[in-house]
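ligand=2,5-dideoxy-2,5-imino-D-mannitol
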Amino acid sequence: MCGEKLRSSTATSLHVAAFCVVVAATIIGVQGSHKVYPELQSLPAEKVDETHRTGYHFQPPKHWINGIFCPMYFNGLYHLFYQYNPKGSVWGNIVWAHSVSKDLINWQALEPAIEATKPFDIKGCWSGSATILPGNKPVILYTGVDKHNRQVQDYAVPTNLSDPYLRSWVKPSKGNPFIDPDRSVNASAFRDPTTAWFVNGEWHTVVGSKRDMVGVAYLYTSKDFKKWVRAKEPLHSARGTGMWECPDFYPVSPTGRRGLDTSALGKEVKHVFKVSLDLTRFDYYTIGVYDKEKEKYVPDLGSVDSWAGLRYDYGNFYASKSFFDYKKHRRVLWGWANESDGEARDKDKGWAGIQLIPRKVWLDPSGKQLLQWPIKELEMLRSPDPRKLNSKVLKHGRHVEVDGITGAQADVEVTFSFRSLDRAEPFDPKWADLPAQDVCHQKGSTVPGGLGPFGLLTVASEKLEEFTPVMFRVFKKGGKHVVLFCSDATSSSLAKGLYKPSFAGYVDVDVSKTKKISLRSLIDHSVVESFAEGGKTVITSRVYPTLATGTKARLFLFNNGTEEIEVDKLTAWNMGKPVMNVPLNKGASIN
Ligand code: DQQ
């Protein structure tokens, strides 16, 4: 994929976009958005290298995974369907793998739900979504690639609705494909139907596409969920953004944290529209209003489509999908993190790709952004005896080890405070047009500052030859302050040839009022997922330490700014290992 080409680059998103346009036009063998390695895609793993495998993130026992594509809650169980290569550790031979869980943390694996077997999906069964129809009937909408290499939209239904695990799915010949791209649609860029919603007496779904460089969400409607008609106008489109993969469209409540069913409407309800931009390989969203009469989505003023806009995660996070959890009345978001170590290493490791921890998502009281937080169920993996620190002062240039915990598999919550903002460095006006990532690259953890950099050094080796700082740095800009949040993989590994980006985003918080900032990091061997200020800004990094592995990985606190920082409160838990994709044999019951 284009992202992989850029693994060793620190290019800005815009540079990424320009680069990818050129590359995408010239590479032969790009299937959808994934680069194809014909010599590797059907090479089964001889062994599975455990060094960087995760302890509590979702992974199958081996081989390639990409994307989430279909989480759902049905009759007391959570189902996850994901794109999986049963034959190798790079993209290819994709099937819809299927796992079930009672709690979104412990998973058991079933047989694949969908494989490429029919004329309407013979060259691929790609991503899609689930909808629960009236009468409690789940249906999967997915993209099939037909024998002419056209992307068409297909459906599948469970063969036996009384099977609690929905092990077996059928793709009826009657009615498939249910959407055929007409001539005005680019049939090689037409995929990933969304969860359908019901309004004005009709079902609605959106399919991601592009027209030249215009990203498009084509809208289709149906009265009976069988015959679908394209609406005159797309639900939404935006110039210069290229292919829109995995669109997601859902309502959010203007107040509170409760999630809404995808069909929920109401005067006050806002909508979120997310796309996975193939050009940059990041997920972007806007917040806006769904005009059900005009069948249009209109982002709020200031909510920007494209890479100038908001991201769920300012790190390695793509092809995400949300679902409404009927059990807990929340909206849950899942993202996929690919590897950043290169396909040759993926082949040697025998695996590639992880699913990130599911996040509850809701609208920030400002109405201008979303908030995200790891689902509560994750806490069942926390050790009963956490390491705690209170009122610990971090002087300039100091780092302090948080001992007594496993630095490779932990959950850490910490609040930092400071007395004054006087020492905050000035924000260089030249940075205004740069992505935060580039500022973080210039102002790394070892570059001394005023108010910051301070934070955690995660997955660190004893003598700090390897470490991944998750940190804050506060700047003065006009009469205000700007908080930069970084998860910087630059020093994460002594290994050569890795992509080690200085991922970063800004946090919309007025620290002059609170003089405090909070952080939570989920550390799991080769992944660090970090949530700043209650989930206002989130960053995921993939890391491949050579020294800081397993029991050798450590965790430190640090401050490299002249302003003294106090660790008000830190709690760090070792994390346990859930049941991860142990097969659920026929006749057996889920644990
Ligand atoms: N991967 C799928 C596509 C989707 C892309 C194919 C996202 O359906 O657009 O495996 O990475």
